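Structure representation:
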Amino acid sequence: MKRLIINTMVLGLLLGVSSCKKYLDLAPTSAASDKLVWSRVDYAELAVNNFYHDLNYFGSFSSGQSDAGMTEGFTDMLKYSSMTYNALMYIPNELAYGGPVLTANYVSVYLGTWSTVYDKIRRVNEALSNLKKYGTALSADDASRLEAEIRFFRAFLYFDLLKRYKEVIIYDEDLTKISKQAALSTEAAGWDFVEKDLLFAGQHLPVSTNAQGRLTSGAAYGFMSRAMLYAKRWPSAQTAAEKVLAMNYTLTTNYADAFKSGNSEAIIQYTFDKRVFTHNFDFYYVPGGDKEGSGAYGTPPQEMVESYELADTGGFPDWSEWHTTSGTTETPPYAQLEPRFQASVLYNGASWKGRTIEAFVNGKDGYANWKTDAVPAGRTVTGYFLRKLLDENLNLNTDNSTQPWIALRLGEVLLNYAEACYKNGAPGLANDAIRKIRGRVGLPYTDKSGEDLMAQIRQERKVELAYEGQYYWDMRRWGLAQTAFTGTRVHGLKIEKNGSGQFVYTYVDCDKQDRNFPAKMYRVPLPVSEITNNTSVSQFPEWN
């Protein structure tokens, strides 16, 4: 999307120039500017480019998932390393622990997106309105393609609202219908709106497997396969996924390559540019040895490590020997674990940037005692560091992060398809999809049925899509979050060297208090501003 980033700047200049008239010229220029932009395809494309930034905003490299870090931090997938640094570490821990802090206002601030997303929806609807008003000079193909792009982004935004709030206020491109007193729709009406927009986008966007250009039909149908799982519209989800699977996307041979630029399974990719647009993901999550005093804001806990299977045979190793609080010198079976573990988690002794990770007390990367050490300063509280989504070629002393955000890929679509097929009573198709996912990383698979099949789908989504912003929301939509994240804690391995130079692994409690996910957290509360200014809505009953 380098071209899109640069062109967005060009558009700003264009619009600025169009309004630089002599100060005595009192004729309004806004309508003329709109007419100019939307009557030419090259200018219209520049205008639409602005919406592409939202693909990154809701990804793991930005704050749209949550103003309190990655949502994986509210689960057993990621442990934020300190009760300091406010939203970067303190707040996600508070959200995970729950309790009295989970007030409507608190949750709305850190997990809500209402006002921000509606600002974005307004801009999208204005664009669509202008396209229909001034785009009559465009070719029919260009007009329908641009409308499809805009409607994709509208569906993309409403999806975010619906997965959080369930009931939303629906606005389309008829700007005369905007009202401060608009009522909430039903959840079904909201999903109707999203499905209709995505279906239009899928039908009118070009078919291409190039994820580095403009939106494609595969992007629309792929995202539709995700959205329809949340809507529980299993036939629509299956059909949308089948559209994508009929295209020429292919799984990367190496799982780790699925997160690199221009790979064969990327369907929607947001690209950064070292010269103009970077992000800070590496700075927050690298091992401390990469840059003194930085990194390790969040690290994988032992629970996540134990979610990975043995590479050669499948199945899970027996970790009981390492669940001792007295310590053991036996080396954990890291080297025996599947490729998805190797690509996602850094452990003591792992190879990284031409060196060996030292996740032990006083090691180069180091270990920090949860709560006892106030600031992690790049040290791990779990005995592990995140590897997935980090750039092994990046020198943080000279550069910021530029690895791309893969917003949608074939691996996810296959798992969306598996879940939809299971719900539609087609276990054979679901098993086939799972076999492809596991086959890419060399894991065996035996067909399953019933709840065993659904459990396998959940397992594959957890490890295949780890740290891609899916797990927390999956657990919520499955209705499993309350059980899984209440009365539970995450753990790690504290690693020390004994007098003989052997590593001693000790099982430690990395929470030191229970986590809590009350039932009301299945829906994000409405912001106070909406309730205050709109008499047609009231706070959801679970938050009163």
